[in-house]
UniProtKB/TrEMBL annotation:
SUPFAM superfamilies: ARM repeat. This is Armadillo-like helical domain containing protein 1. InterPro entries: ARM-like, ARM-type_fold, DUF5578. Pfam families: DUF5578 (PF17741).
Length: 426
């Protein structure tokens, strides 16, 4: 039996317009298609799925299919890529338009977007549009986040963040990584480890954003991976204060996790960088006697100063943490850092932190006073912040060569008189 579908003249006219539009697209040159997309973007920004269907006489999917086909054929060359991605974004962001998302994914949309991120010949603006589309996919729900991660998306996205030159783009990437870290239990650890792997990158903005995102994802993951210790301590060598700030905030958060002892030990060790004599084991330095006298790189001193600052912040936050660090010989390390005449910021930060320990713990005051001698100790207590400007060479040597060690429990009253031998008196 044949069923006849009757259409009104109005519907027939709409279908005719659609077919005419699609035919125009199919026959158009690249330049003509770019003009069609410009008009489409201008006329349809913010429309809902039903509104798009009305615009295309219930045939919007036919245009989306043509868009995605053209994208897949030309994305490697960057031909009008920004217009293509923005046009697809209108479909994916439209309310009540889940079918468009499914249609886009079915033709390999996610893989195409991820591949765009890794192509050096493409413009940063195009890659930013690709990130925005991936955000739309991720925000559609858990299974779509999993699809991105299953396509090695975390690695592609993280690598792009590390090399991106635009802060606006990097901030969009952060939004995407944060989305992938939430509501994605199967792959949240992958996102977490990807963020840790980003910390040694050379982009300060990428480091800052990764640290910020790590703080939120760390709470979701619930357990700190051991690799985070060296990674976050390494970031303290950054000369960018905003990066150091985020690193210190993350370190404060990590005090609630099982990596705390290793992290505290690492911080204290940074107060005494490896001696200059270790430079001779590096490469051709073995054949160069002058290498034995090379100064430490500036980044080492910056890291030393940041460690002293971080230790002070942690100690003021928690007496328990302060006591743990005293057992790790933090007082010895701080005094050594105070004698680093190659970096005044390091001297100043170490002095400020040591002053807190001295004023908070009588046992520390006793040890420091004995190690420095009365004159240097009074100079220190008078103004710790400016001590580095008022020391002579002998006093610097006293600090650098100190042997302060405060073992045992600070709460044990009987050990107060039994102070270990310390070097250096005036």
């Amino acid at each position: 039996r044949t069923v006849l579908i009757m259409t009104s003249p109005k519907e027939q006219a709409a279908i005719s317009r659609l077919m005419g539009f699609l035919q125009e697209w199919d026959n158009a040159s690249k330049v003509a298609r770019s003009h069609i997309l410009d008009n489409f973007i201008k006329a349809n920004q913010g429309k809902t799925g039903p509104e798009l269907e009305l615009e295309f006489s219930q045939g919007a999917s036919l245009f989306l299919a043509r868009l995605t086909s053209w994208l897949r054929l030309t994305y490697m060359y960057g031909i009008y890529l920004d217009r293509q991605l923005k046009s697809i974004g209108i479909f994916l962001s439209a309310a009540s338009s889940h079918r468009y998302l499914i249609e886009f994914l079915e033709v390999g949309g996610v893989l195409t977007l991820l591949e765009i991120l890794g192509l050096n010949q493409l413009k940063e603006e195009d890659k930013r549009e690709s990130i925005k589309l991936l955000q739309l996919v991720a925000n559609a729900g858990r299974k779509y986040k999993e699809l991105i991660c299953e396509s090695y998306g975390v690695r592609s996205i993280a690598e792009f963040l590390a090399v991106s030159k635009s802060e606006e783009t990097q901030e969009q990437v952060q939004i995407l990584l944060d989305s992938l870290g939430h509501g994605n239990p199967k792959y949240q650890n992958q996102v977490y480890k990807g963020l840790i792997a980003l910390l040694p990158c050379t982009s300060p903005k990428a480091q800052q954003l990764s640290l910020q995102t790590l703080r939120t994802v760390q709470v979701i993951v619930g357990a700190a991976h051991p690799s985070i210790v060296d990674a976050v301590l390494g970031v303290l060598s950054s000369m960018h204060l905003e990066v150091q700030y985020e690193a210190i905030q993350l370190i404060k958060d990590l005090m609630a996790y099982e990596v705390r002892p290793v992290l505290l030990k690492g911080l204290v060790e940074l107060l005494k960088p490896p001696g200059r004599e270790t430079a001779k084991v590096k490469g051709k330095a073995l054949d160069d006697p002058a290498a034995l006298h090379l100064p430490e790189p500036l980044s080492v001193y910056i890291q030393q100063a940041a460690a002293a600052k971080t230790i002070g912040i942690l100690a003021k936050d928690s007496t328990k943490l302060a006591e743990e660090m005293i057992q790790l010989r933090v007082v010895h390390g701080l005094m050594c850092a105070m004698g680093n005449q190659d970096h005044t910021t390091c001297q100043r930060q170490a002095s400020i932190t040591l002053e807190y320990f001295v004023r908070t713990f009588p046992i520390v005051e006793q040890h420091v006073k004995k190690a420095t001698g009365e004159r240097l100790f009074q100079l220190f207590m008078r103004d710790a912040k400016t001590l580095y400007m008022n020391m002579d060479a002998v006093q610097v040597d006293i600090l650098v060569s100190n042997k302060v060690n405060i073992p045992g429990s600070l709460s044990s009253p009987e050990r107060m008189p039994h102070m270990e031998e310390e070097g250096g008196t005036e």
